[in-house]
């Protein structure tokens, strides 16, 4: 996907055609967590044959939604970048139907905290981003959102190991909360640091992330409202 110019009507129609096939959307949604998966696994997840999956994957790569890389005898597929994940999440906001209560424990976990590409989303992701902005630790620059030195120092003091190289992020409209969470490379780095510190852990299946008691305590000390 290219930020240089808005999509024209033909490009938008092509994007719509890529998303109109349920098997293709199933494979895209399986990759929203930022993983890379082989064609055979994606075919199984989409409920189609490997030959059919190969044709669909080729279209998605040609359309700029997926990227492919070879590792040994296998080709692995991932989303082209986090903007594709943000687009897939934001499309849910366009539905006319009013939001309904999430009925299952799995849905509640997904709404509370989940991975969007590789950054923290859900209620916890929104609350974290809001706190960084309110404390003036996160600011907007010419390249996007960046973490100010005092913000980086506070997060490091709380136990997160942060990269020394300045990274920039972007706001990402949250699918369930209808508010912004932090995406882009900065969001990915901060989420990876939380996972490494044990504040979050990945559940065996799906995109839900489980906050630990210690992680919630540290986030609360940083000023993040914890429900």
From TrEMBL:
This is ArsR/SmtB family transcription factor. It holds the Pfam family HTH_20. Residues 4-99 form the HTH arsR-type domain. It comes from the Bacteria. InterPro entries: ArsR-like_HTH, HTH_ArsR_DNA-bd_dom, HTH_Metal-responsive_Reg, WH-like_DNA-bd_sf, WH_DNA-bd_sf. CDD domains: HTH_ARSR.
